[in-house]
Each structure stands twice: as C-alpha cells, then as structure tokens.
Specification:
alpha+beta
Amino acid sequence: MHRGHDHDHSHDHGAGGHSHAHAHSHPGHNHGHGPARVAQWQTPHLPEQPPAAEHHHDEPDLDLVEQAFVEGFSAASDPTSFLRLARVPFDAITEDGTRVSLLRVESNATTDIGAVMPHLGGGSFRYDPLPKAMVSRRQQLRFVYFDGKGLRPLPLAEVRRLTEA
C-alpha cells in the first residue's frame, strides 16, 4: 500500500526481488512514504506566570475584558468617570477585610522582538530577531491601591471582588 492505495508495480526489492502486485503495508516496505516529521517550535518569552491569587477567573474571557478596558481607559476624556462606569471602587474592602483606596491605574505594553540562546559553556550567547509570526505582545493592567501600610497592585479580577467601602 502506497499513500492509501494498492497498485501493480514492478521494481526491485533487493536480493531475490520479485515483480507482482501486492500490498506494501508490512515493515520494510515504507519506502519513505511515512508521515511527515513534525517540526517543534517553542514560543519564546511566554508571559510570566501570574501569582496564585490571579489564577481563579470569575468570568470567562477576562483577558478580553482587560484589553477592552485598557483601550477604553486610555482614550477616555475623563478617567474618573470611566472608572465609575466600569464599577471600579475608589474606596473598598478586600476579601481579607483590609480597607484600600485607589491611587492609580497602570497599564503597560510589552513586545518581545528578539531571542537569545546561550552557547555551550555559558560564556556567550546567540541573538536572533524574531520573525513577525513569533513576535509576542502582552499588556498588563494593574490597579494600585493603598492599604494604610503600602501600595497594593491588584489585577482586574481581584478588583472585581472588592466590596465598596
């Protein structure tokens, strides 16, 4: 059998070759017609793993909600009103009972455009710019609250669990 079909053929099968129609499904008769080898690629610069507190998502597609928030917030003529519309509390109580007050909203964008690989022995490295298809982009959104002792940066998922004070 070659590529899904039987056919008559006459070609030499080595010493004691034969010439008749038969299926070639047994070992040794693959003639390089096997499945193509899989190419394995790594995605460089995967986003850093978020802290354990960020892992539980109360709503589906929260990453898309965050992206829409960043786009809207950066274009808003009145950021305070935008936060009210998005129901982001200014004074709130955390799940552990701590009172927090919103100081600022931080949004940053990161684009990875190159990769490095150490040479054997670790004394030097190789740098390669990434092709367009492998460039990675990510945005980080943080709401910085003050808890009476210091700053507390919270992701949107945690902000949504705050109780208004």
